[in-house]
Sequence to fold (261 residues):
Amino acid sequence: MNFPRCLLSTAALWIAGLQVAPAAELSPNLLNQALAATRAQRWPAARSAWEALLQQDPDNPATLSNLGKVQFQLADHQAARTSLEKATALKPELSDSWLALGLVYLELQAPMMAVSAMTRGVAENPADPRAHNSLAIVLKRIGWTSGAEAELQKSLDLDPTCAEAHFNLAVLCLERKPPSLEMAQRHYLKARSLGAAPDEVVEKQIRGESALQESEDAPPPSPESQTPRPPNGASPTPPSPPAPAKRPLTPKPAPRKSSPS
Fold:
């Protein structure tokens, strides 16, 4: 099972990672429009605004980075690659540009380039829990599950309230053989308490319903198959009673978050 939901690819990454270009050549009003449209997830309007800003300063790495992120949201991955590669070349210390570029490479079916970009993003800002979560997603995609778990744990060591890392670690716990249901439940409920959206697939697996559901959906056996035919005309032996089904885990309700004062 892959990550059911890549939380890092939601608007939270783009809003948190928006770079505000300090260049004097940029129009403050247009910059505010670009930021507002991006935060509101009005992607076509945001793209137009960032492109207009780029015309004012074609080599502004922050503008290129933001434009690339918006292009990614619009699924224009080739354009996003061009923008982000130029942004990282102009200002390689911008960790967030490398992280976004890594996600673009994933969509372009270039996983090893994605690993390289994400690793560079982590190196530029190793104290950023989002960077380690990003790298974990890429490592999972190429099949290095133990490396992905290690990066998620680093993310939580840096920020125990990182909902994305808790959610993704819960998914990896479910993929273990056998699944670590208790640990998966713990991380999933923590992610929910931190604001992550519910996921029906994960919840069913935590409750152990997947195997039970398969048995419930299977067609009932015919009467002839229920009782084997004895040899030599002997009396049939009644079948043994089925073993009681194991009780599935029931997740505890997520703690209610207090309203901000």
